[in-house]
Amino acid sequence: MVREGTLCAESKSPVWATKMLIDALNEILDYDPKICIVIEPKPNEPIDRSICGTMGHVMAVSAATKDPSRVGGNLESAHAILAGLDPANEMGFALAMNKLWTVHLNDQNGIRFDQDKTFGVENLRQAFNQIKLLVENNYGSNGEYIGLDVKAMRTTKDADSYKHLENSLKIVKALEEKALKFDYEFQRKCAENRDFEALEMYVMELLMGLN
Ligand SMILES: [Mn+2]
C-alpha cells in the first residue's frame, strides 16, 4: 500500500535496509532458478525516502546478488526526474551495462509527489531524447517491452479514462517519427565545428515541425 506521510529516519538503518533488499533478492533467485528480476529505481515514495534511488543503485544491488545475470533494471522516466536526473541518460547507463530490460515511459513536473503524467506532456525534449535513444539502440529487438506507466487525472470522466494511455502512445509514435528523421550527418558536422547552437536549434525546429 502506498500512502502519504513521513517516516522517522532514525527508526531504521540504511545499511540494514540495503542488506535486507539484497537478501530478499537472493531468496527470490533461489526460489526459482529461471526467474529474472527487474528493479525499478525511485528516490522516494509519497511516504518518504527510499534506498534504491537510481539506475546506479540498481547496478550495484544487481552486482551484489548471487546471480547478477538475472537482475536488471526498469527505468521509469518520472522516477529519474524525481532524482533530479535525465531519463535518457539513466536509460543509456543501463543499456551500456546490457541491463535495461524494460522501461516505463511517463512524465513528471519537477521534484514533488509521483505524478505518472502522460508521456511527454511536461518535458517534450527529454521525452524526445528517450525515444531517440531507444530507436538508436534498436530497443525491443531482444524482446524488451516498453511500458506506459501513466495515470488518469483525478477529475477525468469515466468515458475519457483511457485518454492518457491513447495520448501517451500517440506521443511515443510521433516522437519515434521525429527520431527517425534525425539528421546524424548534420549532428556530426555541428559537433565537429563546435556549432552547438546550430544543433540545439535544429533539435528545437525538429520538435516544433519547422524543418
Ligand atoms: Mn513504474
Model description:
The protein has 211 residues and is of the alpha/beta class. The chain has one domain: TIM Barrel. It is 46% helix and 9% strand. It has 8 helices and 4 strands; from the N terminus they run H-E-H-E-H-H-E-H-E-H-H-H. It has helices at residues 14-31, 55-64, 77-82, 87-96, 124-136, 163-181, 184-192, 196-208; strands at residues 37-39, 71-76, 100-105, 145-148. A 4-stranded parallel sheet has the order 1-2-3-4. Strand 3, helix 5 (124-136) and strand 4 (145-148) form a beta-alpha-beta unit. The relative contact order is 0.10. The model has no long low-confidence stretch (mean pLDDT 95). It binds manganese (II) ion. Residues 40, 76, 104, 149 line the site of manganese (II) ion. Manganese (II) ion is lined by residues 40, 76, 104, 149.
